[in-house]
Amino acid sequence: MKKIFCLSFIAVLFGLQLQAQKVKTITGSDDILKAESSITIEFTYDNISVGKYKNEEEYIAAKTEEYNKKEAGKGDTWAASWKRDKEARFEPKFLELFKLTSGMSIITDAKYTMIVKTISIEPGWNVGISRKNAEIDLEIWIVETANKSNKLAAFTISNVPGGTAFGYDFDTGLRISEAYAKAGKSLAKFFK
After folding, report:
1. pTM for the complete prediction?
2. Lower CB density within 10 Å: C or N end of the chain?
């Protein structure tokens, strides 16, 4: 009986995780990239909210102060890492899984550009006895590379979870980068 309950519980959790990262079409056609073998991808983080904070600047200021109170300089180091993680960790994970799953080449002069706009980040936490996955919400625009003001399609993907197997994701950047990896994979499957 316990085995059946555990399997049912795992199935429900797995189903919720799959449903949480569904891509929704806002405008345009979802088959816009079906005939394409390459794409340009750009990222933007303008006006994002982080956790309970309405904007990223408030979040960085609060966390920097909190960590600096615990240990001098720790908050400043954390803030530098937070800013660096976007380009060094989040984007490469997204690109890796998108390319691997879609089979598309990612080049700088493709016919279309995918603009990945981060709307919100929930960093989550892991303190050993308690943890919460990171989550991201993204808006995706497909534009002509030659005329980026021409938005051909727009999509959203919400509540994309990020965490590692077995819960060894004590680092915020690791949890968030895993959310970007899942988003890249989900989008690639959607466009396939």
Report:
1. 0.86
2. N
**Tens-place pLDDT, residues 41-52:** 999 999 999 999
- Helix H, strand E, coil C: the string for the chain is CHHHHHHHHHHHHHHHHHHHCCEEEEECCCCCCCCCCEEEEEEECCCCEECCECCHHHHHHHHHHHHHHHCCCHHHHHHHHHHHHHHHHHHHHHHHHHHHHHCCEECCCCCEEEEEEEEEEECCEECCCCEECEEEEEEEEEEECCCCCCEEEEEEEEEEEECCHHHCCCCHHHHHHHHHHHHHHHHHHHHC
Pairing mode of beta strands 105-106, 23-27: unpaired
Burial class (CB in 10 A: 0-12, 13-18, 19+), 17: middle
> CATH second-level architecture of 22-191?
3-Layer(aba) Sandwich (3.40)
